[in-house]
Design a protein that fits this description.
Length: 455
């Protein structure tokens, strides 16, 4: 295999490439980025690898979530706080149901680059480049906004740093109300759409959770603080390799290279070609790495990806995030899981129930149905249970805001509601109540998992 360097990806064919007009401007930005401090540290990255290795053994569960497309404009205290809160609340529900610790990872502080199905967008007869995320261009439909601007990489770096700074400060005690489920917005329980036995079960769960947290509080604040400390693990799709490689470096006393823009970068469904630039870049970094796998992946291809990205089969290194769609998961997932097991390859299986379930309404609005999303999660648990493997995590596009982007859930969002508060810059997200309700369903399913010895 040829020698790897942070820029060896440039010798390989690349998909979803960004056409920057001025190479000098790009080079200046990359140089500036490479001189700035890292956003995360190698020891945090190594810590996450250890946690993921324990998740592979069935001892932990991963909850990964956040915006589809993070936006510079939404780098605001209320939005960041609400997003951290919903992830934290969901994780407490999952810990309660699943009887194992949850690793919380945000799609935050860098989820700024978007692969698109079409390179251009047409509105009213005018054709402009598509919006590729704030790392590349801007969402407004004007030629200036849609021009790929390398300086946005610096703006995103700065906003990622500010986001992370706030998230890290919040971790230390900024969430007192989260310890008390009686302060959560559980109004979805009361909706007539929730059958009474489920409502009773949810109420009981909430009561028990509240009692457990209060008991721990009585034992000493430190214990609750530990349980509810918002780990500041971040993740994003490592799509724009100029940005990723500019922050990829060696650190004293450790071997190898770290992509220090984030703890857990992942390769998207559209850029996982075995001979492509993204595989080349990702094979050389020490970070744990995610790979999205849609229904078109062949079992052989999945094994090859594991061999390329983790040749030494190290624990905690590889996270396979399957997104088959509720309709396909029962057929498409088992051969992939079996092939990996047959090849003796270690991966953490995670279900992304969002990206295989996107549909357009008759008026052309992208949405997802709560039921489809839930069905894919439940079917994934069933498949893994049947095969004797472990579904070790879930991956959601969600927000802590009261948006109307996905239909369904006990809050009963309909197609007509979508226009009321459709705020996403790319894909539809679960809103606060839908996300919390989803966690109760998952916790219910997780209560059937075998108990694990304490860590
Ligand atoms: O987030 C995933 C992709 O970027 C997104 O689904 C692509 O959306 P598009 O089909 O509107 O381009
Ligand atoms: C682009 C994404 O997903 P996928 O690569 O699975 O389509 C995403 O997670 O936003
Ligand atoms: Mn998305």
């Amino acid at each position: 295999m040829s020698t790897w360097s942070p820029t060896s990806w440039k010798t390989k064919p690349i998909t979803q490439d960004v056409a920057y007009e001025d190479p000098k401007e790009l080079e200046d930005v990359v140089t500036a980025l490479s001189r700035l401090p890292p956003l995360v540290t190698s020891w945090e990255v190594e810590r996450l690898r250890e946690l993921l290795a324990e998740a592979q053994q069935g001892r932990r569960f991963l909850l990964q979530g956040g915006d589809c497309a993070e936006s510079l404009f939404d780098c605001r205290p209320d939005i960041i706080t609400n997003r951290q809160k919903i992830i934290l609340q969901m994780s407490l529900v999952l810990i309660h149901g699943g009887h194992r610790p949850v690793i919380r990872v945000g799609r935050i502080a860098g989820q700024y680059a978007k692969p698109r199905s079409k390179p251009t967008e047409v509105r009213g007869g005018v054709e402009l480049p598509s919006y590729f995320g704030d790392l590349v261009n801007r969402p407004e439909f004007t030629p200036e906004a849609r021009r790929a601007d390398p300086r946005l990489m610096l703006a995103c770096y700065h906003h990622a740093a500010m986001t992370l700074n706030f998230v890290r400060s919040l971790s230390d005690g900024g969430f007192a109300d989260v310890h008390h489920p009686e302060y959560w917005d559980l109004s979805f329980f009361r909706n007539a759409a929730v059958p009474s036995e489920l409502r009773e079960e949810y109420e009981q769960t909430t009561r028990k959770l509240g009692e457990a947290l209060r008991f721990m509080e009585a034992l000493g604040e430190r214990k609750v603080a530990e349980l509810t400390r918002v780990d500041s693990f971040t993740s994003h799709e490592g799509l724009n390799l100029h940005y990723e490689s500019a922050q990829t470096r060696q650190v004293p006393w450790r071997k190898g290279w770290y992509d220090l823009t984030t703890h857990l970068p992942w390769i998207g469904e559209r850029t996982r070609a075995p001979d492509g630039a993204h595989l080349e870049f990702f094979r050389g970094i020490r970070n744990p790495v995610g790979v999205k796998l849609g229904p078109s992946v062949s079992p052989e291809n999945a094994v090859r990806l594991a061999e390329q990205l983790n040749p030494d089969n190290e624990p905690g290194k590889l996270v396979f995030i399957t997104r088959m769609g509720a309709q396909r998961v029962q057929d498409a997932l088992p051969p992939v899981v079996e092939a990996l097991r047959g090849a003796g390859r270690l991966v953490l299986w995670v279900c992304d129930p969002m990206h295989g379930n996107t549909v357009s309404t008759s008026s052309g609005i992208k949405t997802r149905s709560f039921n489809d999303v839930l069905r894919e999660v439940e079917s994934s648990f069933d498949v893994h249970e049947r095969l004797g493997s472990y579904l070790g995590g879930v991956h959601f596009e969600l927000t802590g805001e009261d948006v109307t982007e996905c239909v369904g859930g006990a809050v009963g969002i309909t197609e007509q509601d979508l226009e009321r508060n459709y705020a996403t810059l790319c894909d539809p997200r679960l809103n606060y109540r839908q996300a919390l309700e989803m966690s109760f369903h998952i916790a219910r399913r997780m209560s059937r998992l075998p108990r694990v010895p304490r860590l």
